[in-house]
Batch of 2 targets.
Target 1
Amino acid sequence: MSKINVTRSSMPDFEEYCNEIRELWDSRWLTNMGVKHKQLQADLEQYLGVDKTVLYTNGHLALEHLLAALQLPVGGEVITTPFTFVSTTHAIVRNGLTPVFCDVNEVDYTIDASKIEALITDKTCAIVPVHVYGNLCDVEAIDRIAKKHGLPVVYDAAHAFGVKKNGAGVATFGTASMFSFHATKVYNTIEGGAVCTADAALADKLEKFKNFGITGQETCEYIGGNAKMSEFQAAMGLCNLRHLDGEIAKRRHAVELYRQRLGGVDGIRLCAEQDGVAHNYAYFPVVFDGFKRTRDEIFAKLGENGIVARKYFYPLTSSFECYQNLPTAAPDKTPVAKYIADRVLTLPLYADLSDEDVNRICDIILE
Ligand SMILES: *Cc1c(COP(=O)(O)O)cnc(C)c1O
C-alpha cells in the first residue's frame, strides 16, 4: 500500500533545471536581482496580467514588507480573517498592528463582506482578506467598502496564483496582493513569493525594502530587511511556469473525479464553483457536517491507510497560544469560521495524483 501525501511539489525535469542554472556558473551572479530574477519578474507580470511584480524569498516576508511599506499607524486596526494560515495574522501583528477578526461566509469560507463595515472604527487602517483555497473573495463588495472608508486592501493571495475572474487576474484587485511560491503551493520557486500591484511607487519602495532599504551606492532611505529571491529560486520559477497550465489541468482532472465521487453525498459539503472564475484547483476542502463519521474520525481512518489529509485551517489563527493575550482574538466572535474549522479536511491534491488514488481515498471515506 503506497503512502499518499497531502501534496507533492511540481518540478521540471532535472535536465531542464540544469540548463536553466548553467549560466549562473559562468557569471557567478547568484542573487541580487540577476538575469533569472529579471526574467521571472517580466514573465510573471505577463502571466498574471499585472503592472508590477516584486519578487521575494518567501510569501510571508512579502506580506510583512507590504504592510510595512503602506506605513499604517502603529496600533491601527486591520480587519482580516482568522480562517487562514498563521502567516497572515503574524504579518499584521509583527507590524505593530491589531488584527480585528471578521467572520467568513458559509459558501466559500472567504471573509464575509457583509460583516466588515460593522467592525470599522476610527482606528481601522486596512483590510487584509484571504482568497482561501484559491476561492476568490467578494472583491467588488470589499472594493466598495474600502473606497467608501478610504482604506487600502491587501489581499493574501497565497492560495490563488493563476486564478482569474471574467478574464481579470486575481492580483488586479485591491491595493496590492501577495503570492506565495512555497514548495507546497500550486506554483513554486522552492521557497518564494511576490507582491503584485498597479502602484508603481509602492512597488519601487518594496524593491528597496527587500534589499535593506538601500536606495543607491551611498544612500539608504528606508529601514528595510533582507528578503530577496535568489537566482536559483527564480530559475526554478522559470521552469515551473512553462509547465503550470498543464499542472493545473491535471489538478482539475483530479478535482472533477473527487466531485463525482463525493458530490451529493449526505453530510459532505464541497465548495461550489464560483461564477465566472477560472480556478487553480489549489486545494480540495471537504466539510463533514452531519456525515456518519466526524472529520477527526475520517482524518484518523485515512491516516491508518497511509493517506495524509490536512485539517486546514484548524485551529483558527485567533485561537493560537501566541494570541491568547490579544483582546481581539475571540474565536467565539467568528462562529462560522469556528464551525468550518472544526469540520474541514483538505484531501490530497497534486498534479500527479492518479485516478486510482482518488478512488482509494473516496472509497475509504464512503466506506
Ligand atoms: C503559504 C501561505 C503564506 C506564507 O507563504 P510562505 O511563502 O510560506 O512564506 C501566507 N498565507 C497563506 C494563506 C498561505 O497559505
Target 2
Amino acid sequence: MNTANQEIKPVTTRINENGNIEIGGCDLIELANEYATPLYIFDEATIRSITKSYKDAFKNYPKMRMMYASKAFMTKAMCKIMAQEGFGLDLCSGGEIYTAQSSGFDMSKTLFNGNNKSYDELNMALDLGIGTVSVDNFFELALLNDIAKSKNKTVRILLRITPGIECHTHEYIQTGHLDSKFGFDLTQIDEALELIRDEYINLHLVGLHAHIGSQIFEKQVYYDEVDVIFNEIKRIKDKYNIELSEINLGGGLGIKYTEEDKPISIYEIANTIIDSIRTHAQKYNIDEPYVFIEPGRSIVGTAGVTIYTAGSSKKVPNGRKYQAVDGGMADNARPSLYQAKYTVEIANKPNEKPVEKVTIAGRFCESGDILAKDIVLPEIEEGDIICFYNTGAYGYSMSSNYNRVLKPAAVLVNNGKSDIIINRQTYAQLCESDVIPDRMNG
Ligand SMILES: *Cc1c(COP(=O)(O)O)cnc(C)c1O
C-alpha cells in the first residue's frame, strides 16, 4: 500500500474550477491574496494520513511508540496535532522544549536529544518534566547527573550510540557512521554503563538510542540498525545482568521531492523493523523491548508547500533565464545548503504546457540563493504564483532573517478552511531584540 510520503504532492491537491491548484480545499491564489507571499501552507489531511499510516503499520507491535522529531517543523499547532495523534515529541533545544510545554503537551512523552545540550537547557528540561534524556557523551552524563542530584531527582536516560551504519544519503545528513559527532562509540558503552552503575546514581538507564541519517530510501539499514542495537543489549545483559527495555531507532524515512526519488512506504519500514526485532528477540531470548521511532521529515515534509510571487526576470545573453521570486534561501535553506531539488508548478497555470527552461532565483544577496536550477515550466509572467512542493520539513525550521527579510506566515488548510498557525513576522518584532547602547544615544 502506498503511503503519503511516496507522493510529491499533499493528498488533497487538485486543480479546481478556477483552473488553479487547490490544497486542503483552498485555492492557492486566494491564499496568496489573503495572506500574501511567501507563504508556507500545511495540509492537515496529509499530516494525519501519515501519522495514521505509522500507527496502522506498527499496530501488530503493541510496544511500539511513535515520537515526532519536532525539529522538522515545530510550532504549537503542530504539537497539538501530534498530541491528538498520540505521538510523543523528540526535542533538541530549550526552544523546542519551551514550545512543547507552552502548547500544553504531556511532557512525560518527550525525549531530549542533542550532542551539546547546555547546563541551562538540561536544567530547564528537568524543571519542565522532560520524559527521557538521550545522553550523547561522557561530559553530558556527568553534567546531567549533577543537575539531577541538585534537584533530588532521578532522570530516565537513553544512551545515544553510533551504530556504524552507512546509509546512502547526503554526507551532511548521515549520522550513524563511525566518524560522527553524535553519540557514544560502541567501544565506549561499557565505560558509560559502569559510570552510571557506580557513580551517576541519579541517572536511570532504560535503553539505547541511535539515528542513522535522513532521507533514507533503503529498508536494509533499519534491519542492520536493530541488529547492532540488539547485539549490544544482549552483550550488556550477559556482562552486567542489566536488561535494557527500550530501543529508539531514530527517524530518517525518505520522502519524494522529485520523480527521481523512490521512497519506500511506511508499511515496508514497519515490517522490516518488526521482523528484525522479533527475529533478534527470539534469537537472543530477550523480552521484546519498547521500540521508539522518531520520524520528522516524513511526517510533515509532504504536507507542506511554499508559494511565492514571481517578480523580475533576467535572460543572460546565450545563457540561463533567471526568474526571481519574493523568497529564497532565508525561508528555504535546503537548496543552497545541500543542493536539494524540488518539484515546482505555477499555481495559476497548472494546465499549461511546460515550454521554457528556467532557474528560480531567490531575492537574497547571495549568488548561491537559487531555489531550483534549470527546471522546465510554462511561461512565467510577473505576478504568477509559484508553488514549491515538499517544503514542510526543514523549511520554516531552518529559516532565518537574512537581509532582515521577515519570516513568512504559515497556514494550516483543511476542508476549505485556512487557519494561521504562524503569523508573518513584523518589522517591529524584527527589531525587538536590538539594543542601542545608552552612550550612543543623545
Ligand atoms: C533529525 C533527527 C530525527 C528525524 O529525522 P528525519 O530524517 O527528519 O525523520 C530523528 N531522530 C534524531 C535523533 C534526529 O536527530
